[in-house]
């Protein structure tokens, strides 16, 4: 097959940029050719644009001629070059399966190339672990059926990301023989697969490009070293189009070191752990684990969003693939070290056994609704997981129920019998993003005092409980203008109690609320929440003055309870709050 007929004419005629190092292979001498610094620090010289030494090492490890090796800045560079070399913008198209690696579609969009997706066969929601072996199978006939005269590329990710499924080599060879274009086979996860690599058959298929990487099995994701194996002609076109110094000196040196490492034992452990984790998760009722040839598992949960948030709350970060075609309620879970896998299994088992999670299996619209309908305390369910809490405070004067989730999750509502107070309380969830339900009955026939005081106490207790151990929170948080008013609310969730109030109301009432009670409400909440709370405001309109205070408090609270998804340390030099 003459693959040059697939190459864009401007690429065939392109005169590539020639670097100083392209024009000579001299390794020792006085280099005055590239405007570099002459002061040797190990990095003062440009890297070899042809990566000769690294390619020699890769050739020895992979058993592929150096002329058939392209080294790029991750596999993403090679994916982009496939479009730039072979596809006419606005005319050509590319075909792949869905779901698959998202960069195929992103690169097509960047290059103005139409991207056609062929849906994988997926397992029904009620399929069990032992009966989903054919889930997400890849079919060469379906890929070919999506092609037309303008199709220049077919992308096959095998093992596929995120499904873990593989296309057999027989199917791949059928595709290569029948497709009049370039087949790009992404073998990023091939080292974990029982299906052998197509590298030994590379020379027999001039329209084949095989992508591999040092990021997975070789443990060098931070180096961003991707490899494309193809005919010398295709490698030559890639080299014409790539940026001159696409791989830096440090990455090449570290890649040489990585290729010297014995990675076989780590791959063997990963494959063994993959089986152990799959078996443990599949044993949990209503959890489906799909077979995988990669270093990850695709796992279907009854409520993947809830499980994702619950794991994140415990510092376990997985990939939520629920919005990807064919992967509803699925999480992609990378296989970690044995101790990390133990922590994952333990967390999933514990979260799955919670009453609210189990209630959601019955078809309840959301976990939050399940909690409400079952009467389960979210605090007991997700202590240290999701930041939920409820407080029911009953006295001789009031009956107050408060439910909150610092991370949202249900529709907020506030009812206390005091209309203006409800209007103010509504500002808290609206401007903080915190879900909040308040239902209060008090002796309003006597006074507003007991109702507002006990709502403040119950709200403070609920917020404090929802914060849990406070790991990862920002802790501090707001100055807010509102028409002619301005409000300043300073908050510290560090556990010490101090309250300051400087809000000069000029009327006795706003609506049905005595203005003096706003101070008492915030003071009661501050003491119950165990925080520092300083409130200062100024303005003319008393309605605006009160509203600016509640809005500023909400924004301060939003900033203070916000969590950093990548850091779960306590925000304190003392190591304790």
Topology:
Blueprint: H1 9-12, H2 52-62, E1 69-73, H3 74-86, E2 93-98, H4 103-110, E3 114-119, H5 140-145, E4 151-157, H6 169-178, E5 182-186, E6 208-213, E7 225-229, H7 232-241, H8 249-259, H9 264-282, E8 288-289, E9 296-300, H10 304-313, E10 319-320, E11 330-334, H11 338-352, H12 355-360, H13 367-374, H14 378-382, E12 388-394, E13 398-405, E14 413-415, H15 419-432, E15 435-442, H16 449-467, E16 479-482, E17 485-492, E18 498-502, E19 509-510, E20 513-514, H17 516-529, E21 532-538, H18 542-561
Parallel strand pairs: 2-3, 2-4, 4-5, 5-6, 14-15, 18-21
Antiparallel strand pairs: 1-7, 6-7, 8-9, 9-11, 10-11, 12-13, 13-15, 16-17, 17-21, 19-20
Helix pairs in contact: 2-8, 3-4, 9-11, 15-18, 16-17
Textual characterization of the structure:
- By secondary structure, this protein is α/β, with parallel strands linked by helices.
- The protein folds into 3 domains: 3-259, 3-Layer(aba) Sandwich (Aspartate Aminotransferase, domain 2), CATH 3.40.640.10; 265-353, Alpha-Beta Complex (Aspartate Aminotransferase, domain 1); 372-457, 2-Layer Sandwich (Ribosomal Protein S5, domain 2).
- Helix content is 35%, strand content 19%.
- It has 18 helices and 21 strands.
- Strands 1-7-6-5-4-2-3 form a 7-stranded mixed beta sheet, with helices on both faces. Strands 8-9-11-10 form a 4-stranded antiparallel beta sheet. A 4-stranded mixed beta sheet has the order 12-13-15-14.
- Helix 2 (52-62) packs parallel to helix 8 (249-259) and helix 9 (264-282) runs parallel beside helix 11.
- The longest helix is centred in the C-terminal third of the chain and has 20 residues, at 542-561.
- The radius of gyration is 31 Å and the shape is elongated.
- Residues 123-133 and 355-385 have low confidence and may be disordered.
